[in-house]
Amino acid sequence: MLATNERQSTSRSFAGGAEERAPDAFGPARRLTVALLLVMATQAVTGLLFADAYRDVEWVRATWFGNDWATLVIATPLLALALVRSGAGCVQGLLLWLGLVGYSLYNYAFYLFGAALNAFFPIYVAGVVSAGAVLILLLSHIDPRRVAARFRSTTPVRLIGAALVFIAIGLSLVWIAIWAGYVFAGRPTPIEPEAFKLVAALDLSLMVPALMAGGVLVWKRRRWGFVIATIASIQGALYLLVLSINTVVLIQRGMSGAPGELPIWGPLTLFTGLVALLLLTNIRSERTGL
Questions:
Q1: Distance (Å, rounded) from C-alpha 56 to C-alpha 64?
Q2: Residue 269 and residue 240 in contact, taking contact as beta carbons nearer than 8 Å
Q3: For position 216, what pLDDT does the model report?
Q4: Rounded distance between C-alpha atoms, residue 276 and residue 164, angstroms
Q5: Which residue, 38, 69, 107, 155, has fewest beta-carbon neighbours within 10 Å?
């Protein structure tokens, strides 16, 4: 009973307008996240066990293979851990929860709009809808002032902000340069044009704005900057990790020569992961009287 009261009290401390809200402001988001975890595990396991159900060309099926493994052994356990930690009143858990849900939304958008129509289509829809709903519920209840107050005053916000803006500009320049080369100079895209369009569209419309906004706002020490920057860096690190894993899969299956694109995605994964780690480790412990 005491543990439940402490969790509810902490949930109220993370949420705005706590006095007028239900005891656990994040209760609906928690329940939906459990449903999202079931969707993620189901999709990953069925994708691996029934790989023949994918109707894409061979290199795309190889990327789904890498993605399914990443979902099963990395994203799903991390989301479960974040959910437990946030329930125990940990700000790191709350922000990790947000970042992983943001990644899940982004990831299942790839499946929903990028995979050829197959037996898993309803699961992709469920993944996008549940992740989107959880993200809306969390962001509508979170109090950015109280979350920002948990960050140490010595947090290197300018270094973090500059790094996120650098990544955002770098991604933008790469995708725009490839697009311009294809349209105006007749140069081939690194993957099929339609597949490239999906990746570039999702990055330029979702990933880049989040990285840019998070970087600029955290540089200025704005309250929402700490929230957005952490979400964007976690999402970006996981996305780049999946790209690195997929590169290894393509090399192992003889569809790409070594080292493939690993020299690009590997360092970017490490760089973005370090930014996310820098943010999470600069959150003061609840034991210090926060």
A1: 10
A2: yes
A3: 97
A4: 10
A5: 38
The maximal CA–CA distance of the chain, rounded, in angstroms, is: 67
pTM: 0.88
Q: Which two tokens stand for residue 141?
A: 């209840």
**Residue 282 sits in which domain range?**
2-288
- Could you read off the pLDDT of 43-63 as tens digits, one per residue? 999 999 999 999 999 999 999
Pull the structure tokens for residue 69: 């493994």
151 forms bridges with which residues in the sheet?
Answer: 283
122-154 pLDDT, tens digit each: 999 999 999 999 999 999 999 999 999 999 999
Count of domains for the chain: 1
Three-state SS for 156? coil
How far, rounded to the nearest angstrom, does the alpha carbon of residue 122 sit from its chain's CA centroid?
21
Placement of tokens 């840019």 in the chain: 212
The three-state secondary structure class of 262 is helix
**Rounded-to-integer distance, Cα 166 and Cα 50, Å:** 40
At 19, is the pLDDT very low, low, confident or very high (cuts 50, 70, 90)?
very low
* Distance between CA atoms of residues 59 and 129, nearest Å: 27
**Other CB atoms within 10 A of residue 30 CB:** 18
* 10 membership: H or E segment, kind and range: helix 2-14
The answer to whether 145 and 223 have CB atoms below 8 angstroms apart is: yes
